[in-house]
């Protein structure tokens, strides 16, 4: 199993550009989520999904869109990139519907810079 | 959601035992305590989870007192490779979805 795969690993955007961060998991996990991590900060939840066709907002959803058309994939879209979105983005998944009992598996992250 | 408080940073030396305490005064009856470890340039990794008393696995031990208002992650005989950020999470099954919340964590630096 590859686990949670994120692409790309690095990305540089200009302000106003759009892009999609990809996340795929091969563990048949119901729960998937996106976090961002800024220097000296913990991880902040952007969006999450408890199953295909179901998504919800986390703590910092503004400027990001998500969709969950399949169990395996959970892409994160930046509609119009801003310098404030410069961050490291992590995708995570777990077996259950996001309860604390379920172990989260993280991808290796995408480092995004917006100029 | 129960709020957690951890030390921002800790220093230790190789071979020592390290104990990181997390305070969670308003933990709910159904809440579990989970610890994650994050190395630089990597996503967090699950270490251990418990509900009460003591849990031990091949990596760490988790001590939870009877009132469950705090918990202590114990790393035996640390090595340089244990240098990482450690996060304490508290939460449990609820009527809706649970949103795992990571604070700033504790940055552990292990010195030679």
Structure characterization notes:
The complex is a heterodimer of chains A (115) and B (112). Chain A is mainly beta. Chain A contains no helices and eleven strands. Chain A has strands at 4-7, 10-13, 19-25, 31-37, 43-51, 54-57, 64-66, 76-78, 87-94, 105-106, 110-114. In chain A, strand 4 (31-37) and strand 5 form a beta hairpin. By secondary structure, chain B is mainly beta. Chain B has no helices and nine strands. Chain B has strands at 9-13, 18-23, 32-38, 45-50, 53-56, 61-64, 70-75, 84-91, 106-111. In chain B, the strands form two sheets. Chain B has a five-stranded mixed beta sheet with strand order 1-9-8-3-4, with no helix packed on it. Chain B is globular.
Keywords:
heterodimer; A: 115 residues; mainly beta; seven-stranded mixed beta sheet; four-stranded antiparallel beta sheet; 0% helix; B: 112 residues; five-stranded mixed beta sheet; 46% strand
- What fraction strand of chain A? over 45%
Largest sheet of chain A: 7 strands, mixed
Radius of gyration of chain A, Cα only, in angstroms? 13 Å
Could you state the order of secondary-structure elements of chain B as H and E?
Answer: EEEEEEEEE
The N- to C-terminal Cα distance of chain A equals 36 Å
The total count of strands of chain A amounts to 11
**Could you tell me the number of beta strands of chain B?**
9
Helix content, binned percent of chain B: under 10%
């Amino acid at each position: 199993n590859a686990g949670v795969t994120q692409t790309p690993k690095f990305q540089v955007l200009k302000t106003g550009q759009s892009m999609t961060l990809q996340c795929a998991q091969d563990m048949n996990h119901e729960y998937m989520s996106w976090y961002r991590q800024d220097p000296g900060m913990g991880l902040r939840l952007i969006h999450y999904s408890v199953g295909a066709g179901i998504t919800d907002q986390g703590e910092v959803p503004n400027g990001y869109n998500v969709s969950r058309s399949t169990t395996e994939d959970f892409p994160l879209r930046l509609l119009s990139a801003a310098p404030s979105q410069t961050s490291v983005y992590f995708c995570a998944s777990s077996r259950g519907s996001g309860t604390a009992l379920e172990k989260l598996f993280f991808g290796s992250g995408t480092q995004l810079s917006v100029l | 959601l129960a709020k957690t408080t951890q030390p921002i940073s800790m220093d230790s030396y190789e071979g020592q035992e390290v104990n990181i305490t997390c305070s969670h005064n308003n933990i709910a009856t159904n809440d579990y305590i989970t610890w994650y470890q994050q190395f630089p340039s990597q996503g967090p990794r699950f270490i251990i989870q418990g509900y009460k008393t003591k849990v031990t696995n091949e990596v760490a031990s988790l001590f939870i007192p009877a009132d469950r208002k705090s918990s202590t992650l114990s790393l035996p005989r640390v090595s340089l490779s244990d240098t990482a950020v450690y996060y304490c999470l508290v939460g449990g099954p609820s009527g809706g979805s649970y949103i795992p919340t990571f604070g700033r964590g504790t940055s552990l630096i292990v010195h030679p």
